[in-house]
Amino acid sequence: MKKLLSVKYSATVFNITFLLLRLVFGTAMLANHGYGKLVHFADRKDRFVDFLGMGSPATLALVIFAEFFCAIFIILGLFTRLAAVPLIVAMGYAFFVSNSGNLFGDGESAALFLTVFVALVLCGPGRISVDGMIQK
Q1: DSSP code per residue over 14-59
Q2: What sign results for the dihedral spanned by CA atoms 66, 100, 55, 34?
Q3: What are the Cα distances from residue 29, in Å, to 21, 56, 90, 101?
Q4: I want to staple 68 with a disulfide (CB 3.0 to 4.6 A). Which of 21, 34, 85, 116 is the partner?
């Protein structure tokens, strides 16, 4: 019981926690969002949102880069902080603009992803990652 109420943690627990966050949220982003957009690019390119006047196909290509390719980097823990930045931009847009900051409705998923990716930028991927192995 004393351990459950403790605020202390070990480096091993920290590293395992961030491994789980990377694996679960990276895979969820890749499978549930990025892959579908990648496979159906031709169907969606003309009716996707136009971000900052770049045009729908360019915006969709950047979102696919973030949600598919950057998610792969997050899962591997390779260039994690750098790979999280496009995901933060995409999820920030999805939450604040597309879902009007509606935390308890349609924007819940975007808010969860946004929070995890910000945590990855702030704390890093942990030692159980390609980045962690490179730094040894």
Answers
A1: HHHHHHHHHHHHHHHHIIIIIHHHHHTHHHHTTTS---TTS-HHHH
A2: positive
A3: 12, 21, 11, 19
A4: 34
What is the per-residue pLDDT across 26-83, written as a single tens digit (0 to 9) for each? 999 999 999 998 998 888 888 888 878 888 888 889 999 999 999 999 999 999 999 9
Tokens found for residue 119:
């945590």
How far apart are alpha carbons 9 and 126 in whole angstroms?
14
How many residues are given for the chain?
Answer: 136
Are residues 116 and 84 in contact, defined by beta-carbon separation less than 8 angstroms?
no
pTM for the whole structure: 0.87
What end-to-end distance do the CA atoms of the chain give, in Å?
Answer: 35
Dist. CA 86–CA 59, nearest whole Å: 12
What are the backbone dihedrals phi and psi of residue 115, each rounded to the nearest 5 degrees, phi first? -65, -45
CA distance 80 to 91: 16
Here the tokens at position 132 are 């962690």
Both tokens of residue 56? 């729908």
